[in-house]
Amino acid sequence: MKHYGLEIDIRNKPELDAKFIPIHKFNEAFLKTATKPFSIAIERNDKQIYVKSTFVHGDEAHADVDRRYVDRLVKFELWQKGGFRLYVKGDESLYQTLKHTYSPGGSRAFDAEFMGNLYQHDFEILLCDELPEPFEIKKSIGRHFDGCRIGFDAGGSDYKVAAVIDGEAVYSSETVWNPKLSSDPDYHYNGVLTAFREAMEHLPRVDAIGISSAGLVGNNRVLFAQLFQKVPKELFDAKGRETYIRAVREIGDNIPFAVANDGDVAALAGSIGLNRNNILGLAMGTSFIGGFVDKAGNLSNWISELAFAPVDVSPEAAMDDWTRDVGVGVQYFCQEAVIKLSGAAGISLEGYDTPAKKLKAVQNLLDKENEGAEAIFRSIGCYLGHTAPFYYDVYKSESMLLLGRVVSGKGGDIILETATAVLRDEYPELPIELLLPDEQTRRLGQSVAAASLPEIPK
Fold it and tell me: 326: which DSSP letter?
């Protein structure tokens, strides 16, 4: 097929989304003829700087495809790494395009405003002759199993809590809640505190508390989370950001604790359960997020908000209602993907009032061998088979662990089988292994892995 004049060969297409154009295939075709060096750097307010070097064409004949490539490149890097300042080197025309794109009224105005608010600094783009030196902080966190610990995992549809003694879970539970529907931050606080107290009943004492939270966190505070999407900004700033800190202090003033992004904790759980490092966790649930444990067993400091990072370059790709961009991960690898594909599969989800209930309805049909439901999960598997090579380029991880309710049960088996077949057919040279959690990992659980986050001072 042709896209922006590029010839893109796609043998395996999602049966319910034939217009899907994998970003990895687009990039490969683009870079075959691009020879002009082009680089960007992204800076965060913790002084971390990430540098990405690539190529563009830099001539009028390829102006449109250059702009498309750079637009998707910058979008991905921002939502995978995070940052408020973008440095551009190598092409002034593309710099001017980015300046316009990320200005008020531009097509990426949302991204600029979000990143600026997240890092509490106006988003800016600078043209430079030399990029700043890269600087990255690795986080050695987790894998502490001594003592009596509480592990808490906050998701969009439920929370899980575990009481852990010397690495063994003596109690765990799962509770349905609806934080995304509440405008009162005390709803979130009371839910967390109730879970802590529930776990305490099964421990002789509390030596440490570890927390896995959906959203972006820093210094144990919530920087942003859709868990709080209904909470007014002034209330979120006043109370919501310190929800976990306040709840821990209610249990005890001097208890060591740590809060980490749920994607990172999911990867940590997989790393512990599978006894391997250099693993990328892909959590496919209420939303979609990545977490990465490197070869040394450290967690990355990247935000890895893959829900809002591009995977499909088709101009007819589905739009994300929040960022108003098309072709980003949330429409391909979580319950929103199941809902999106249901119409093409001939499945009506009318009468189900939440995304979680809609997912469950499709999974129930899948258990009854409904062909439309099977087609949905095969299509998601095809998406994954084409996107895993792109993530491999970014993370250099040969092991990718699939997590979350979308891959539970029969649907996970279909996704894994289809994605593996696509990888084998179209990307046989890549050493990518897709994994579903084994029984040990399931038994460990994300809340138990969260319990291992803080170190108990000796």
Answer: B
